[in-house]
Structures are given as structure tokens and as C-alpha cells.
Amino acid sequence: MRRLNRKKTLNLVKELDAFPKVPESYVETSASRGTVSIIAFTTMALLSIMEFFVYRNTWMKYEYEVDKDFSSKLRINIDITVAMKCQYVGADVLDLAETMVTSADGLVYEPVIFDLSPQQRQWQRMLLLIHNRLQEEHSLQDVIFKSAIKSATTAMPPREDHSSQPRDACRIHGHLYVNKVAGNFHITVGKAIPHPRGHAHLAALVSHDTYNFSHRIDHLSFGELLPGLINPLDGTEKIASDHNQMFQYFITIVPTKLNTYKISSDTHQFSVTERERVIDHASGSHGVSGIFMKYDISSLMVTVTEDHMPFWQFLVRLCGIVGGIFSTTGMLNGIAEFIVDIFCCRFKLGVYKPAPVSVVDGHANNHLPLITEKSTH
Q1: Within a 13 Å sphere around the CA of 183, how many CA atoms are in the beta-carbon half?
Q2: Per-residue model confidence as pLDDT tens digits over 234-281
Q3: C-alpha angle 119/125/128, rounded to 5°?
Q4: Which residues of the chain have pLDDT under 50?
């Protein structure tokens, strides 16, 4: 009984075989079909290799939501060189809540030489070239996001020469923590002094002839400091044409959460527009000479996530490539053989000539000669 059930089960499994095998004696091979098979297998191999590289690659996915975090502090990373001595300039932040954050809370004033060394000038030109490429090819930003933590730092290299020039400039670098509201980071003449009714700088002791707000922004970013990211103002250099000149930067900050397979950090992207003008009260151009960066924070937050193709999707696409090429090449080979058979075989001379017809017992016979019966009496 067990043998009978096992035999029935085996026969049932054999009937479910979806891949019937044709005996080799029934298979007819040809050089044309062999050529098509070689082309098909080569195409499958190439497309499978390309699909594997697509599977290994990753891409950045962008999602947008409302930023609900209002209690945390915003970090401002600053590295700016001004063509004035450090005792003549002061930097601080004043936000919409009239909260002042002075440079003593995290900024360092370092006397330096304003002119760059050859290596530093090369670094600046390279940074500006990257900015131009980013404006033309926006997909490069995804490459920078993915390689942020493992790429080389974008900070300016130190001077390789020991110049004897006087240190005529002041490098202001460090970071500040401010409220997440709109504010104004500025560098102007004189040190900031506390004032109960507003904001003031002690500029009376500085000679007007020493005003020179030519500056270079080596780095400016918001949020967590990532060494591989390139920001819009990095490498910017402005040369003042007048003592009383104002440089304004209007910045819109977008909170960004960056999640890749290498890092996970809270940073910020920003866009900027620039304006500069000469202060001349006689002609109606009022204001204060200096460098002013007015920033505002967007209410939207961007989540940038590095995504990868699932393995099951890779298998489905791979099966689609193999099955599709098999089906397509089989159809094309059948159509080609049909066309060749029509034009090269069916219309040969003499194939469709009428053959002699014979009548046997009232039926037409194309192969037998005509036979007539004689009656006998």
C-alpha cells in the first residue's frame, strides 16, 4: 500500500513538471541559431553585470516635514579673515529676541597675513571650481553627502612659507550657539559693548582711514560641523573699493538630518544672496560699514537618507533580464527564419509548377499518369 501511494505521488509530481525535456534525437541545431544563442548569452552577461553595479550603488532620498524643534540651540561655525587688525574689529550676533551673543563666547581673534600663500591660493581656486560645478550639476551634492565623513577636510591648509610680512589682518574663527530664530551676525568697527537700550560698538577710537572690510570667508556653516561638506560661501573673497563699504549676506537656513551608511548627524543647508554698497549719507545711502550676515531659519526640515535596492528586487530584475532576453531572441530568431524561408526557399523556380493530373476511380491524382479504361463486350 505504501509503495502504491509512493508511486502515485511520484507520477503526480512528474505530471507537474513545467520543464519537459525533448530527446536529443528530436532537436535540430543550426549555425544561425547558435549565433543567436551566443549573442543572447553575451547580452545577458553584460546586462547582469551592469545590474549588479546598479544594485551596489546607493542614492539619496529627500523627505520634507515641519521642523518642530524650537528649544534647541543653533550652532554657527565661523572662519572669516578681515583685512583689519584685531583690535579694530568686533564680531557678535543679535537675534530678533534682542539676545546678544558676543564673540567672547566662542570666537578667537588671530592676527594673520591677508594675502594667501601659493598653496592656499590654489586651495581657494579649487573650492570656487567645485562651487561652479555644483551649480551646473546638482547631483554632485549627493556624492558629497555620501562621502562627507570619509573625504578629506575642506579647511584651508596652513601657510607653507614663513613670510616676514606684517600681520595686517584678523582671522575670526570658532563657533557660537544662538537661539533658533532669525538673527544678524556682523563684523564691524570696534568691540561690542553692553547697552540696555540696544546694541553698540566702541568705534570712536578707531581712525576712519583704517577702515578696510575686504574679507575672505574660509568657512561658514550651521549645525554640526562635518569636514567633507562644502557650503555656499566657503572660499568667497571680497575686496572693498572704499573705506565706508557695507557687505550684506542674506541667508536662508534649512534644517537637515543626514542619515547615510557612514554617519548620522543634524546639520543645516543654506542659500545666500549678496549685496554690497558704499555708505554715503550725503547721497542717501545710510548704514554702518562692516560685514553683515542676516540669517533666517526655514520652518521646513529636510531628511536626507541614503537608500539601497533590496536584494529581492535585484533578483526580480535579474530574472526579468534573463527571461526577457530568452523570449525576445526566440521571437526574433523565429521571425528571421520565417522571412528567410519565404524569400529563399518557397519562391524557387519550379516549386509551384502544376503537375500532371490523373483520374483514378473518379479521384484526381497528381502523381499517377492518366489512365483510360476500355470497355469490352
Answers
A1: 23
A2: 889 999 888 888 999 999 999 988 888 877 888 888 999 999 988 887
A3: 145
A4: 349-350, 352, 364, 367-377
**What is d(CA 321, CA 360) in angstroms, rounded to the nearest whole number?**
60
Q: Which residues of 327-343 are buried (b: 16+ CB within 10 A; e: fewer)?
A: eebeeebeeeeeeeeee
Alpha-carbon distance of 81 to 171, in angstroms, equals 4
DSSP label at residue 331:
H
217 Cβ contact partners less than 8 Å away, ≥ 6 residues apart: 79, 80, 233, 234, 235, 236, 237
Candidates 180, 146, 149; CA nearest to 304 is 146
Which DSSP state fits 343?
A: I
Amino acid at 112: V
Q: Which pLDDT value is given to residue 347? A: 56
The CA distance from 292 to 199, in Å, is: 14
Q: Can you say how many angstroms the Cα of residue 295 is from the centroid of all Cα atoms in its chain? A: 26
Note the pLDDT of residue 3: 62
Q: What is the pLDDT of residue 238?
A: 92
Rounded Cα distance, 43 and 49, in Å: 10
Q: What is the DSSP string of 34-99?
A: HHHHHHHHHHHHHHHHHHHHHHH-EEEEEEEEE----SSEEEEEEEEEESS-GGGEEEEEEETT--
Angle between helical axes of 311-341 and 31-56 (0-180°, round to 10): 160
d(CA 121, CA 369) in angstroms, rounded, equals 105
Domain positions in the chain: 31-57+310-377, 68-298
The helices-and-strands tally (H runs, E runs) of the chain is 5, 17
pLDDT for residue 309:
87
Which residue do the cell numbers 614663513 mark? 162
Dihedral (CA of 171, 275, 97, 68) sign: negative
For the entire predicted model, the pTM comes to: 0.70
How far apart are alpha carbons 103 and 109 in whole angstroms?
Answer: 9
- Set of cell numbers at residue 175: 563657533
Q: What is the pLDDT of residue 153?
A: 60
For the chain, give the number of residues: 377
Task: Tell me the residue type at 339.
Answer: I
